[in-house]
Inverse folding.
């Protein structure tokens, strides 16, 4: 998903769920910040490098694709953008190497999503924002895996956009090109995707790169053959999926506010958006690359407050200027802790399932091993809470 | 059934490409044979050349010999390419007549003949044993590629026929 949904739609969902304007803004900022917190940014503010929640194009271009490099990539992308659906999925006639990657395929309403939302319960607004980003991305990025894998994430010539034509949809073959300088041409159906690389672990085969930006466009409806699908066609209806994401976010946010006793899978707060249903549906279906303008107008009419545009530098100075003891209590400090906790949880779950694609996971409290310095903050926080 | 159709069409594209690859491989094989196996060619042509006394007659014979080989290679190449390209086109969704299937049956039998020849004259004490083994492996690969192509092509035609009947019944 893009800034239009992660920032503005998350703000709208938080406001509808009952958060105040400032709280909703913090949640929305954190949700969008997940797409900005790279190692480069962390180096700049001298934050914990292990708290990286994404990788920039340059970082990916330079990323190693040996075992350690792949584990680093998988840890980030599987934890924050492609939450695995079923870590114990079974598939016939597959070896373990294939099965490990197959089990990282993202989909909605997973056990890990429940754990993600529960992890944010009782925590800061920043952790809530991180959880909302992950929840939203499970809808947009479903059927792709957060690990570089040709045999999972590849697509082929069978890729059709479904254009509305009266009551039905007319399929139009999509032409992919590999020019990062040219933007997608929605009129002609020309979209940019990553270059085909026959190397199984090439970063070109990470996530939905092979499908370009289509999963991130709220208006897009398309059908294609995923490499893992054994020739089954996947039909993706983004307007419906994004609407589900929005309603599920409201339900999750209400749970996190304490209005519900538990967060259940496959539950959506549809009734609460009835006054704005048509407006939201229209925003999601308008054929445009970035719906930020429409979402901004909706948010401002919803809350009656001005929504400041997202700025990466907003909380930078606060974090840089803070003393060592105060850093964890700044906005970014709390975000980094939330990110570390999320990454730690997902990595542990993946490792516990017997899958080493995200690397090793060590319970520091039990084993007493020092380990990676950044994660010691989580141990300290756990000890403080105990 | 659509899933089966897609699967077999994909196989048809891949095997069609394989057949095209073997068409080029045959050319390479022949050229390498002509360039590097001059002694073998001499052994083959010497009994015939000895019938001619004049050097012009020997030259004429050589020209005819190499021309025939070239023509045969060109025909074989076009033949194989036609089969490969037709299979690929059918796999991409186009409709092709059964001519390429019939021709591929001929090619399969020809391949079988080559494999039989290679096995029959296989000499374990032969100086270039690895070449012999590789030749057999390539011929077997070509055979199985063609076989798979034929099977997929037949399946595609059957499924398409069934789907056409189903849609005509529905109408």
């Amino acid at each position: 998903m893009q800034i239009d949904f992660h920032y503005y739609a998350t703000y709208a969902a938080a406001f509808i769920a009952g958060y105040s304007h400032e709280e909703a803004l913090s949640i929305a900022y954190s949700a969008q910040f997940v797409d900005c917190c790279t190692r480069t940014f962390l180096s700049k503010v001298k934050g914990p490098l292990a708290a990286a929640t994404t990788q920039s194009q340059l970082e990916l271009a330079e990323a190693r694709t040996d075992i350690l490099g792949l584990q680093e990539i998988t840890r980030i992308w599987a934890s924050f953008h492609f939450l695995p659906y079923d870590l114990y999925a079974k598939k016939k006639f597959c070896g373990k190497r294939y099965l490990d990657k197959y089990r990282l395929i993202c989909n909605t309403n997973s056990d890990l999503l429940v754990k993600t939302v529960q992890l944010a319960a009782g925590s800061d607004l920043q952790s809530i924002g991180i959880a909302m980003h992950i929840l939203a991305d499970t809808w947009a990025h479903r059927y792709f895996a957060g690990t570089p894998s040709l045999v999972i994430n590849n697509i082929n010539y069978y890729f059709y956009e479904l254009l509305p034509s009266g009551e039905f949809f007319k399929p139009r073959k999509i032409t992919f090109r590999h020019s990062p300088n040219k933007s997608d041409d929605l009129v002609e159906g020309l979209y940019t995707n990553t270059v085909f690389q026959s190397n199984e672990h090439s970063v070109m085969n990470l996530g939905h790169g092979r499908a370009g930006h289509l999963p991130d466009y709220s208006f897009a409806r398309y059908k294609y053959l995923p490499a893992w699908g054994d020739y089954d066609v996947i039909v993706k209806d983004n307007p419906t999926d994004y609407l589900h994401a929005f309603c599920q976010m409201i339900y999750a946010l209400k749970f996190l506010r304490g209005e519900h006793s538990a967060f259940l899978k496959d539950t959506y707060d549809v009734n609460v958006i009835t006054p704005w249903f048509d407006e939201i549906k229209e925003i999601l279906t308008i054929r445009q690359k970035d719906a930020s303008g429409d979402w901004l107008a909706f948010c401002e009419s919803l809350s009656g407050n001005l929504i400041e545009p997202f700025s990466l530098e907003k909380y930078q100075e606060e974090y840089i200027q803070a003393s060592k003891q105060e850093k964890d209590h700044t906005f970014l400090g709390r975000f980094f802790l939330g990110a570390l906790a999320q990454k730690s949880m997902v990595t542990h779950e993946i490792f516990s399932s017997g899958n080493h694609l995200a690397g090793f996971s060590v319970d520091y409290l039990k084993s007493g091993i020092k380990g990676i310095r950044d994660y010691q903050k989580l141990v300290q926080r756990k000890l403080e809470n105990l | 059934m659509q899933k089966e159709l897609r699967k077999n069409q994909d196989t048809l594209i891949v095997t069609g490409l394989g057949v095209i690859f073997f068409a080029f491989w045959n050319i390479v094989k022949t050229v390498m044979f002509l360039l590097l196996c001059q002694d073998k060619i001499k052994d083959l042509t010497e009994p015939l050349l000895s019938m001619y006394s004049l050097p012009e007659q020997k030259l004429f014979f050589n020209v005819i010999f190499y021309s025939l080989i070239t023509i045969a290679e060109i025909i074989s190449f076009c033949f194989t390419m036609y089969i490969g390209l037709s299979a690929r086109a059918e796999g991409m969704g186009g409709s092709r007549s059964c001519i390429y299937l019939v021709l591929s049956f001929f090619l399969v039998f020809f391949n079988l003949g080559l494999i039989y020849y290679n096995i029959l004259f296989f000499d374990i004490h032969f100086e270039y044993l690895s070449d012999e083994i590789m030749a057999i492996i390539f011929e077997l690969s070509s055979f199985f590629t063609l076989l798979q192509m034929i099977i997929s092509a037949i399946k595609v035609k059957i499924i398409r026929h069934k789907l056409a009947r189903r849609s005509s019944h529905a109408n």
Observations:
- Chain A has a mean pLDDT of 92.
- Chain A touches chain B through eight residues (CB under 8 Å).
- The longest strand of chain A covers residues 159-165.
